[in-house]
């Protein structure tokens, strides 16, 4: 059994697209991430029942990636919370909550911590306070803590691997980390060493810079995690 | 062009085997390593002219890996030096010299430093003095400095990646490092980050624990070094 779980995002830009999606394409994904932020708020709530019905055999991670954290949707705090609350009624395996951008929503959803992937994305750099941010997020007691950062130099990637390892040794196996871009690719396949629990792999178009395809990720992890 | 060069070892155990070797199997290897230590000293010297003729289109690394450094041949210092001297007459691209095990031979061959892969192998651990050993080896001014060590824990591998990166930044692009065993596999494909110049990949049977096949290594490096 593979140590690092593979999450495959699905990014639908129109309601009609859901029908064309072939669930079997996602059959080897450990988790399907519905990156809902390619739709409007109303479209998300309209699509939700059909999406969760269609993927009822899959573990679903619901993610509303906002513009400030590199995503596509711009919503008020109120609307962000409202969408997450409604999605929770469909009982997804996990929901992503942007800790530093949507603190109030996180506070309002604390009862669902066992479903939460508390996330932080930095598309500019690997911030020097990353360790403190990770500890802060860890202390909230969510299922997972996820960080995605942008390395500027090789050492940034190596530092992230080391930080993830230290966090895992210190606080346990619930961290997910990735360095984005071409430089960061190694971080997407090094979970067996660092303890990073998940890796995000694309079916076709990637949902973040430096992402590797599902097929390639499976091939590489099967070699590294022999 | 691939940043990390792929070295493929060839380990012949009998004189008659050379004829059966298909040179085209090695055509995508950047360097062919003749791991001669699977033969006796006399067999090596007898095979040499045919080997160098057969692989005249390839860059050849000649390696006599002694028992003390994880290899198969046990020879006196005198015999070790005699073999290397004779092999040098065939003008291989590189020769491996075990720095800490065969210091006198290294001293006697200093004129060939531009062909030398100065090597150190530790099959037990990642020694705490690894950085000092690397600096000491670097100071000898050889073409490459190669270390292969055995990690006991995940942090050992991450430390090796960091040390290799630091060495490369400090002293330039002539280090080759690998952590052996299953744990160390990531180090065999992370040259684009650490600066490790070569990786050793097997055609079929691996010549060191944790080695990845040539085909797999090419596939992975083409993804990571995009």
Task: Summarize the topology.
The structure is a homodimer of 226-residue chains.
Chain A: E1 5-10, H1 17-20, E2 31-35, H2 41-54, E3 60-63, H3 77-88, E4 94-98, H4 103-108, E5 116-122, H5 130-138, E6 144-149, H6 154-171, E7 175-179, H7 191-194, E8 198-202, E9 212-213, H8 214-224
Parallel strand pairs in A: 1-2, 1-8, 2-3, 3-4, 4-5, 5-6, 6-7, 8-9
Helix pairs in contact in A: 2-3
Commentary on this structure:
Two copies of one chain form a homodimer. Chain A has a single domain, classed as Aldolase class I (TIM Barrel), CATH 3.20.20.70. In chain A, helix 2 packs parallel to helix 3. Chain A has a nine-stranded parallel β-sheet. With 226 residues, chain A is an alpha/beta fold. Helix content of chain A is 35%, strand content 20%. Chains A and B meet through helix 6, helix 7 and helix 8 of A and helix 6, helix 7 and helix 8 of B.
């Amino acid at each position: 059994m593979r140590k690092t779980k593979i999450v495959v995002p699905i990014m639908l830009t129109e309601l009609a697209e859901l029908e064309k999606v072939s669930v079997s394409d996602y059959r080897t994904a450990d988790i399907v991430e519905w990156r809902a932020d390619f739709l409007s708020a109303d479209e998300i709530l309209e699509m939700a029942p059909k999406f969760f019905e269609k993927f009822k055999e899959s573990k679903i991670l619901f993610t509303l990636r906002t513009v400030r954290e590199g995503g596509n949707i711009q919503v008020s705090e109120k609307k962000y919370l409202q969408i997450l609350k409604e999605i929770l009624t469909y009982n997804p395996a996990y929901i992503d909550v942007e800790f530093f951008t949507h603190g109030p929503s996180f506070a309002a959803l604390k009862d669902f911590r066992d479903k939460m992937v508390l996330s932080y994305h930095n598309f500019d750099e690997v911030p020097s306070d990353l360790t403190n941010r990770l500890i802060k997020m860890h202390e909230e007691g969510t299922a997972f803590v996820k960080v995605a950062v942008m390395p500027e130099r090789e050492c940034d990637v190596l530092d992230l691997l080391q930080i993830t390892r230290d966090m895992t040794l210190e606080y346990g196996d619930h961290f997910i980390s990735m360095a984005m871009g071409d430089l960061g690719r190694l971080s997407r396949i090094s979970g067996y060493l660092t303890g990073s629990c998940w890796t995000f792999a694309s079916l076709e178009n990637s949902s973040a810079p430096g992402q590797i395809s599902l097929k390639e990720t499976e091939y590489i992890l099967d070699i590294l995690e022999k």
